[in-house]
Design brief:
- This protein is α+β, with helices and mostly antiparallel strands and 209 residues long.
- 39% of the residues lie in helices and 15% in strands.
- It is built from eight helices and seven strands, in the order ααββαββββααβααα.
- Strand 4 and strand 5 form a beta hairpin.
- Helix 2 crosses helix 7, helix 2 runs antiparallel to helix 8 and helix 7 crosses helix 8.
- The N and C termini lie far apart (35 Å).
Length: 209
């Protein structure tokens, strides 16, 4: 009962902090800029025809790298985004729960959790990352300082694939506002371009804020 009370308190606190009216939001990365700032950042991004995936490989974005001690990026996100997470000496989770905000689903085993790149690696490649150095791509693929990585259900992550908001959005509509703010923050931070349909979709999502 004590654990349940603590869990409920955490849900309430986090939901309040994120201003969400529907469901808990325990699995969010660093808070993105406000909707008004996101709107300004979106307006500053270059809009052009999306590039191709010619030459693309996930191996060109080295991940997961060691972040602290024995913990790599995936394990750091699992610890950050979960509740009641315990790990062994290798930093592998031995217990915990994760709330997947994309589909409003609780996951009780880390094997059912994927770490999603908010802006997918292939999407970044088509938006300018093809011209980056390997070091820059590694930074992008492991960046914990902005809202680029999030623990979600494997099924929702695989449903998203490499899609941008014009062709995929979380089924949990209550997070469309913050998802758009996160996406824009990442593209703005890394100077990535976007296509016209993607911009329109993001504007519509910001309209739900």
């Amino acid at each position: 009962m004590r654990r349940l009370t603590a869990l409920v308190a955490a849900i309430v606190a986090t939901t309040t902090a994120w201003g969400l009216s529907a469901g808990p939001a325990l699995a969010y990365p660093p808070t993105p800029p406000s909707a008004s700032t996101a709107t300004s950042e979106l307006a500053s991004l270059t809009v052009k025809t999306e590039g191709s995936t010619s030459g693309y490989s996930r191996d060109l974005f080295p991940h997961w790298i060691i972040q602290s001690g024995t913990c790599d990026t995936r394990e750091q996100v699992l610890k950050r985004d979960g509740t009641g997470v315990t790990v062994d000496s290798s930093c592998h989770p031995t217990a915990g729960q994760w709330y997947s905000v994309y589909d409003a689903t609780w996951i009780n085993d880390s094997s059912g959790v994927d770490i999603d790149h908010i802006v997918p690696l292939a999407e970044a490649w088509k938006s300018g990352a093809n011209a980056w150095t390997t070091a820059r791509r590694q930074q992008f693929a492991n960046d914990l300082s902005i809202s680029q990585l999030i623990a979600v259900s494997a099924s929702s992550n695989r449903s998203k694939g490499d899609s941008d908001p014009a062709s995929w959005q979380p089924t949990n509509a209550s997070v469309h506002c913050i998802y758009a703010r996160e996406w824009i923050w990442v593209k703005y931070t890394y100077g990535l371009s976007l296509q016209s349909a993607e911009k329109t979709a993001l504007q519509q999502m910001l309209g739900t804020c």
